[in-house]
Write a structure and sequence with these properties.
By secondary structure, this protein is α/β, with parallel strands linked by helices. It is built from 5 helices and 5 strands; from the N terminus they run βαβαβαβαβα. Helix 1 links the parallel strand 1 and strand 2.
C-alpha cells in the first residue's frame, strides 16, 4: 500500500517557531504510522531566515498536490492566512480531503464551503483524523467525495 500523505498547512509568517513546530509535532506524534507520510512545509527550515518567495510557493504547492489530505491550522485571530487559503483553494480544486482546526475565520463561507471537516481544537481534529486514516488504510472508508 502506498503511504497516505498529509500536508500540514497553517500560519508561519510572523509566528513563533515554537508555535509553528509544536502543533505539527503533536500531529506527527499522535498519528505516527508507517503508512502515513507527513508533508511539512517548515521541515528543515530556519523560520528566522528569509527564503525566496517563489521557491517557497512552488515547493508548498507541490506538496499540496502530492497530498491526499490537508490538515490546516486556523486558530490565530487577526491573521490573514493568505498562504494557507491559497493552499486550501488548490487542495479543493484538486479534490483533496480538507480538515481544518481552530476558530479563526470559522463561519467564513469560502472556508466553510471547501472544508470537509472543521474542528474547534487540534485535539478533536487529530482524534477524528486518526480514525479516518485508519479506516482508509483498512479499506473500510474512501476519501470524502464532494457534491
Amino acid at each position: 500500500m502506498e503511504k497516505l500523505k498529509i500536508y500540514l498547512a497553517g500560519a508561519v509568517i510572523k509566528e513563533s517557531e515554537e508555535f509553528c513546530r509544536s502543533w505539527r509535532d503533536f500531529v506527527k506524534h499522535y498519528l505516527e504510522d508507517k503508512n502515513i507520510k507527513f508533508l511539512d512545509p517548515i521541515k528543515g527550515k530556519d523560520l528566522d531566515k528569509d527564503y525566496n518567495s517563489k521557491l517557497i510557493y512552488a515547493s508548498d504547492m507541490r506538496m499540496v498536490n502530492k497530498a491526499d489530505i490537508i490538515l490546516a491550522e486556523m486558530c490565530l485571530k487577526d491573521r490573514p492566512y493568505i498562504g494557507t487559503s491559497m493552499e486550501l483553494q488548490e487542495a479543493f480544486r484538486e479534490g483533496k480531503t480538507i480538515f481544518l482546526w481552530g476558530k479563526a475565520n470559522k463561519g467564513h463561507y469560502f472556508l466553510e464551503t471547501i472544508a470537509d471537516e472543521w474542528y474547534d481544537s487540534l485535539e478533536y481534529a487529530v482524534m477524528d483524523l486518526k480514525k479516518f486514516t485508519s479506516e482508509i488504510m483498512k479499506g473500510e472508508k474512501r476519501f470524502l467525495e464532494r457534491e
